[in-house]
Amino acid sequence: MGLLGVVIPYLNAPAITLLQRTCAPQHLGKLMSIVVMLNGAFLPLGIAIFSPLADHIPIWAIMVLGGIIELGGARASSLTAAEGRQGPR
Question: Of 10, 24, 35, 47, which has the highest C-beta tally within 10 A?
């Protein structure tokens, strides 16, 4: 759990930077407010899903699976960003 707190900023910072670099400046405020709103909105949903799940599956297994999914998403995001820097083929 503590490791997740250390890793998340390294995943969020590139994602936010990518959003800021690809969004038109006049839309950046709206985009960031939507991102923050969605993050806040999905928190209760995550609690509603994973609290009952934790009664049947060990917490460590849920955390490991979540970490694997998040790292996979970060990898896919970095590949997409690298492909965008190279330009169209």
Answer: 35
